[in-house]
Amino acid sequence: MSTYFIGDIHGCYNQFKFLLKKINFNILTDELWITGDLVGRGPDSFKVLKYIFSLKNKARLVLGNHDLTLISIYYGTHKKSIEKEISELLEKKDIDYIINKLRHIPLVQYDKKRKLIMTHAGIFPKWNFNEILNFSNEFQKNILGTNFLKYLRYMNGDFPNIWSNNLNKYDRFRFIVNVFTRMRYCYLNGELDFSYKDTPPHFNNNIIPWINIKNELDKDFLIFFGHWSSLKNIKISKNIFSLDSGCCWGRYLKIFRLEDKKFFKKKCNFKI
What is the pLDDT of residues 155-177, one digit of tens each? Predict the structure, then answer.
């Protein structure tokens, strides 16, 4: 049995299947962890989703910001322009099934025994392990609850950008979503900053990549995340693995095998 971790696929189905063939992925014995952003930008989001869902419990998924955007568009709570690939996906006859499956995907995957944890964007430095799981569960309860449409309407936005237990339920929801699916930079006090997405260092030395802020979890856990395709040539803790290598920008799709800590990658032959 081998355990694999793969970065944001973004509809890059051919590259995804090439990598699975390269590693001789065995659906009977192997396990595939995926950092989210299954859809959008690339040409074959539908094929990616159908294949991943066919893996059933052999695929461990978290939601990315693009996956949440698809859910929001489907329910009419997303007010911005819609990319062509997503519009085409929404026309598929299986879209109801797909959206239902996506709504059941958590923000956090973990294996406490093997000390593994995965999210789309990262781990908020101010939260401990139990808080991370509790907030992921809180998100799932809300997105599967009877009032989920109202939560989706309040999901988007950059504020509040600092955590407090006194936030109202919709602000809590937005902050939790932003941490797990959009976070890149923080201040030392835990305040999130969404004004800059590029490679560190930043011209403002007061904002720091979350991976460079002390976090007790990376002492005990291996942490896997995607989302930040421009993150390169920056020192990261040996227990933190960045897996989004910009497949949809004409760079690579990357997969990591846990047992021997070996990376495999496939060059993408298109750029959006």
Answer: 999 999 999 999 999 999 999 99
